[in-house]
Amino acid sequence: PSCRRIQYLKGKEGQVKKIIRARSLSGTNGQRGRLDKPKDELVRSHSLNLSQDSSVSRSRFRELNTFYNSLERLGQLERETSSSSNDLRPSRRMREEEIIDYDLWKRVRVQEKAERELSQLKSKLKQDQREKDLFFLPRDPEDVRWRSDLDTGLRNREKSVEDLKCILNEQALNFEDAKLRDLETRKDHYKPLWRGSSVIDVASHLEEKYSTLGEK
User: 76: which residues sit within 8 A by CB, 6+ positions away?
Assistant: First the structure.
């Protein structure tokens, strides 16, 4: 009986292990399914966002590609226009009997064409910097260049210290002369009432007068 009991208990333990293992597998599968659902939703939302932003990114890429190509072309034109040490265009009008050099004429036309293209490309890049937020220059040199008609502070240096001193002295002399003329022309009501001599002069004059009378 004890042997049968031991075998019976072993059989029950095996059944319990099988049930527990089956439950654990089913639980992990369910948990894995629950974890996979939000992952699928994230992948789906990410793909939707990529499809929506793809058109914007493509247009931005085209803008940047065009912008960098323009910068490369700008560098080439600047090197071409600055490589010539002097201006190839003739300084005076050629006479009719003078022979025109074809090579010189061709180089002049190439230089003029490069200068026109350079100015057009610079204006286009400045417009793209304002409208499309594409960085081209830190600041336009024309905006920071000093203009005498707009800034009046530095125009004071046009006059030296000696000039300012002469102007101030003339103003002071003119002010004094004007004040003296004003005092001379203004009628004084109290000046005729002033005494001709002071109190000390009157006292000394009286002493002299009485002393002469006493002597007599």
Answer: none
**Domain locations in the chain?**
56-90+101-139
**Residue pLDDT, tens place only, 45-78:** 656 666 556 666 778 788 888 888 888 988 888 8
Instruction: Read off the amino acid at residue 78.
Output: E
- Compute the residue count for the chain: 216
Give the HSE-up count for residue 145: Cα atoms under 13 Å, Cβ half-sphere.
5
Tokens 């003119």 correspond to 174
CB 158 within 8 A of CB 150: no
Alpha-carbon span 107 to 139, nearest angstrom: 33
- What would the DSSP string read from start to end of the chain? -HHHHHHHHHHHHHHHHHHHHHHHHHHHHHHHHHHHHHHHHHHHHHHHHHHHHHHHHHHHHHHHHHHHHHHHHHHHHHHHHHH-SS--S-SSPPPTTSPPPHHHHHHHHHHHHHHHHHHHHHHHHHHHHHHS-----SS-HHHHS--TTT--SGGGGGS-HHHHHHHHHHHHHHHHHHHHHHHHHSPPSSGGGS-SS-HHHHHHHHHHHHHHHHH-
Among residues 77, 180, 66, which one has the least CA distance to residue 122?
A: 77
The residue whose two tokens read 């890049």 is 125
Using the predicted structure, report yes or no on whether residue 100 has a pLDDT greater than 60: yes
> Which pair of structure tokens corresponds to residue 172?
């002071």
R_g (Cα) of the chain, nearest Å: 53
pTM, rounded to two decimals: 0.38
